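User: Can you fold this complex?
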Amino acid sequence: MTDRSVTQDRAPQGGATPARRFGDAGLLAGLAILLVLALMPQITAVAGGSYVLNLVMKAMILAIAAISLDLLIGYSGLVSFGHAAFLGLGSYVTGIALTEGIYGALPILGLVLLICGGFALVTGAISLRTSGVYFIMITLAFGQMLFFALSSLSSYGGDDGLTLWDTPDLFGAYVFQTGSGLFYSTLVVLALTWLAVGRIAGSRFGRVLRAGKESPLRVGVVGFDLYRFRLAAYVIAGLFAGVAGFLMACHTEFINPSTASWQNSGTLIVMVILGGMGTRNGALLGALFVVLIEEALSRYTVDWKLIFGPMLVLIALFAKGGLANLLARVGGGR
Amino acid sequence: MSVVLALDGLVKSFGSLLVTDNVTLDLKPGECHALIGPNGAGKTTLINLVSGTLAPDRGKVVLADADISRLTPPQRALAGLGRTFQITTVIRSFSVLENVALAAQAKDGSSFRFFGTARNEDALNSRARAALETIGLGHRAAVRSADLSHGEHRLLELAMAIVGAPKALLLDEPMAGLGKGESAALTETLKTLKTQIPILLVEHDMEAVFKLADRISVLAYGKVIATGTPEAVRADEDARAAYLGTKLP
Amino acid sequence: MSSTLFLIQLLNGAQYGVLLFLIAAGLTLVFGVMGFINLAHGVQYMIGAYLTFMYFGVTGNFLTALLLGLVTALCLGLALEALVFRHLYDRDHLDQVLATFGIILFVNEAVKVIWGPGTLTLPAPEFLSASLQLTDNLLYPVYRLALIVVGVLVAAGLYLVVTRTRVGMLIRAGASNADMVSALGINIRRLFMIVFGFGAMLAGFAGALAAPVFTLEPGMGDNLLIVAFVVIIIGGIGSIRGAFIAAILVGLIDTLGRSLATDAMNLIFDASAANQIGPSIASMLIYIFMAAVLFFRPQGLFPAKGSA
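Assistant: Here's the predicted assembly.
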């Protein structure tokens, strides 16, 4: 699966086509999705209520993590099975900071970026020495390592997690308190993530990553040390997911080791695959879709995984990205 | 500078098997130096030693008076060594132009640029287009490279190798799988190219070798058994023996 | 820590290592031979435990239950292979990940529906239910000792099969070069099926053996699966010998680490900090060990393949 948004509308001379001048269709579709999301407080006020709005929030936060994961899976060909670790780490740094009396959003976010970035740098540096299935298993193992480390923090709730009694404030304003403040902050972060990953994919840096996904050998021979590019991508993805963890802690007012569980990492991968890897809106749509279908199925039966599991098997066996194409056509994305 | 690329006493063995036995040869400006030899003579290993995929046990590789023996393949590429592969390795989902632009990008400042659309960088694109024109693939710039013919793939590889203005080119069987017409056309292209960038050529197509090469070295059992002008090599007894059964033209 | 306690931890570590080996052996073969990443392997472990539990309820005899459980686990493994895995061998790893992840979700949920979400226990068989006086003040359950012995015997048997028999020769050849094996006219599909069914049965066997020691709960195989991944990464993919040594190492490091880490941290930090940091460090030890091994030997301790 290649990056269709980059390869399809190639101009004869490599310059601007009419489609590019008006912004390509994927960009417009993405903006449309974000616009609909921005109107969700108004829409849910009429129908659905706060329950649905909470669900949308959850989907938006997971979408941030999924989009950042797509930078690895979709654009770089790196199947990271430990991405939820960054989500968990971000939420724990936030939770621990709040418990220890740091309330400023900026210092907390600074800590989140520092610690998630550091964790990504160290685990990435080791994991990226390998490739293929080794990489999948090692990222899985590092994710699990963090999960157990968080579970054993007995003064921060251990296995059970910890309820947060405070929310971070931005210069005294409680923009991260549950409610519209948090909703719009999340929306802004989501939009920035979506925009940034789209830009990165098309940049010089992203071009090296995309080429490396297809042929690491070729990329090396023209003169790129692919390892450094991949490590940078791994760290960038970890930073975005860490911020998603921060938002998650604010949203749920609770931190829990299971955020970092490998099942969660798996769910993020499912989001990326279902939405369509390496496409502008794939991970965004995938996250919305998965949260939606979980909700829909669990209304029908508590044992919704009995349906969802075989669904994934069938998609893997027969769809080959077909669902992504279908979704993209329905969603108007590319 | 009288020598661009020099292999100086290269030795490589795998276990007890000596595959590169004290190989010394050089490449001068404006020339094409062809390396021939029967299968199993150690040509592939030698190429890997030069390009950096393998590290020699002894000896060194010198490019423009700089020892590059300990550099990684990407570092050697940046130092000015362009190469093509026996088996085509291009980025199939990229357009022809973008493949070459990617190669141009490697030698044009930092690629740790996260914003700005690489595809729209005119400097890279025009350099890429110039390289494509040089090897006669300009008209295919916009095509997805997966859609190229086999011969065109070889040309694209060549364009990617020359776009960064390397000091020397290492071509691994560029004629492999080409038709007679294509092969002749590529020979003409390389004839012009070698005046700008000297070429170390590994090739099975003897017709092309004897048309192109200014000097030929014959490799057998990891050793250079003969070096000289095409005429001298054609007359050489050892070279003939190494190619027993194959007629040197 | 007293020497008695140390001995107990040593035995517990060996026992954990043996269980890990039984899971990792199937995983490393399936993976080495087919290049297939089977996340659902942990599910086989869980199934083995639950099936034995179920048959024990029916027959009241542990060995009969174990035997029936194994046969059923084998059949289920073969069915999964025929229905799902067979169609994914040539596919992208991502498809394999997606499909096996779906299977995990389904089977874990199914177990929850059939046997309930709570924990269950299975008694050790009577003839092994005694405890053995190892030292003056150390009683150790015979069942756990038997588990270690059985595990080592299975490991030895497996090693003989892989190194001495024709099937084993094919498995090793397949692990290093699958194309060559099929070029020799061997039915590679059937080889895959045998390896897969056998691996599934081994994991089920581990689950059945573990059932009297640990409690049964839905998802019980998932965490163990990841540790089994750690084991085969350390041991080298496709290597039975590597899997065994790595499994015992990981079992010992994890078990001893958990009891020693807090004490060790006490030397550096004050007691309350040590109580915090100790368990955290202990839970990370095997992963740190894995990272260290990878750093020095990216292919693991006993690489079976030339490349990853």
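The longest strand of chain B covers residues 17-27. The CA atoms of residues 96 and 140 of chain B lie 7 Å apart.
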